[in-house]
């Protein structure tokens, strides 16, 4: 049975989707972009945007009863693969070893023309 995860500690969904869904012992998040709780876009560089994305992921995962240490898979969407190293430096500070599996892809465009979007799959505690 799937359960919808919703928290006021992360930006609300801006479309017909859930912040995350839990299914059994897994939590699957929707992609998070660098929006603040008030719905404002973080306009900074890729590092600043990645920090906000990860803060949003932490909040959604906490609402589901888990955290970044229990993430088993991430997918990172970048508007520009030339910003990979800067994104990766922030990512590495937040995701502890043993690291989750990861895919990183450059896409033609992201919602609200952000530089980064990340989605994760995590185990529940």
From TrEMBL:
Top-level taxonomic group: Bacteria
InterPro entries: RidA, RidA_CS, RutC-like_sf, YjgF/YER057c/UK114
Xref: SUPFAM superfamilies: YjgF-like
UniProt family annotation: Belongs to the RutC family.
Name under which the protein is recorded: Endoribonuclease L-PSP
Segment forming the signal sequence: none
């Amino acid at each position: 049975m799937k359960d919808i995860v919703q928290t006021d500690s992360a930006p609300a969904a801006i479309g017909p989707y859930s912040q995350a869904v839990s299914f059994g012992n897994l939590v699957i998040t929707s992609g998070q972009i660098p929006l603040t709780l008030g719905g404002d876009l973080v306009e900074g560089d890729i590092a600043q945007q990645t920090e906000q994305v990860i803060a949003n992921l932490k909040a959604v995962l906490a609402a589901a009863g888990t955290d970044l240490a229990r993430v088993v898979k991430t997918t990172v969407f970048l508007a520009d693969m030339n910003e990979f190293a800067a994104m990766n430096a922030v990512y590495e500070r937040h995701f502890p070893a043993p690291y989750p599996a990861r895919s990183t892809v450059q896409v033609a465009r992201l919602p609200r023309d952000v530089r980064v979007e990340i989605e994760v799959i995590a185990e529940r505690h």
